[in-house]
Amino acid sequence: MAPKNPLSHAKSPAVTRNVKHVVLGDLLFQTWYQSIYPEDLVSKDTDRLYVCRWCFRYSCDADAYANHTRACLHRTTPPGSKVYDHGGYSVWEVDGEYNKLYAQNLSLFAKLFLDHKSVFFDVFSFLYYLLVYTNPEDSSYHVLGFFSKEKLSWDANNLACILVFPPYQHKQLGKLLMGVSYKLSGWEHDPGLIGGPEKPLSEMGSRSYSRFWEERIARYILLRDAQSGDAQDSPQQKQKTPKGTRKRPPHEIMTVQDIGLATGMLTEDVITALKGMGAVETATPSKKRKMPRTSTDGPDESEPVIIRKSKILEWAKAHKTTLDDPIKDDGFVGEWAPKGIKEVSLTSDEEGEGEQDEQDEKEVEKDDEYLTA
């Protein structure tokens, strides 16, 4: 899965770098930051560093690099165990305690593109999840990026560090890694467990996660009717509305904590996403009186607001957000494989997508919903 232009100019050098360029497999691209490679093996002013695309061992000597790639122990398969596999992309879990040298080499390489994140000596307390693409023509594989996670996080962080290597960026692969990190955090098995990435986030990480959270909440709110069935349209409910009475848009009272529990997101991340979508309106006084308030809530969490599904739908269309989750439940393997999958989708097939989208928009306009946040 080599890009058309192997030389990446995604970021201009902002600091002094001990390595100017790296060769990863058959790709040559520029580094962004300095890494703590040992000076006896990598000089302070190295123009080109050769890095094995399978195990991330490094060398300044092209011949030594070539000899290693012909005998690398990880030529055919990554280390660790596979946890996810779908559409040619897979995620492999590598334990830093049992693959210490591999984890250290990966961390050294990653530091060339990360500003304030660095894990090198303490790899034994981390798990590393490799994003791998396998070429269907020859079964060769490429490591495209990874995320790391503490084995024991007191803050319930589901991710410590994330990086998609420069040649593979801007391909929505970061969202795939983020989605896997939320799935593996266990929130769907234990509704009381809420997690998120380690903070503070970098500027790039903040932008990426904001979009990820926005899309996650958009899917949840817009698919709620599909998940709950047609209960709202049952004949019993229709008979309860007297003739001549003006039908009010159905609504539901919900807190940001409820949304967080349903999506596995922290309350602060839910608020960030809702504000980012511009889907929040100030509640009118009449609606404020109907909404319960608790003395324990903070000011941002207790102030009633309205979230309209029609606005979220507009946001989703403007940002070309698909309602299909990019992470497929049936892609998880091993101990993470689900025991009974029931996928929910608003479209039955590709040919009916246009008609279904139009019908969904009409239903949203007809049955607008407002929530508290």
Automatic annotation (TrEMBL):
PANTHER family: HISTONE ACETYLTRANSFERASE (PTHR10615), HISTONE ACETYLTRANSFERASE KAT5 (PTHR10615:SF219). GO terms for cellular component: NuA4 histone acetyltransferase complex; nucleus. Its EC number is 2.3.1.48. It comes from Aspergillus steynii IBT 23096. Pfam families: MOZ_SAS (PF01853), zf-MYST (PF17772). Residues 229-239 have a biased composition (Polar residues). This is histone acetyltransferase. The keyword Transport does not apply.
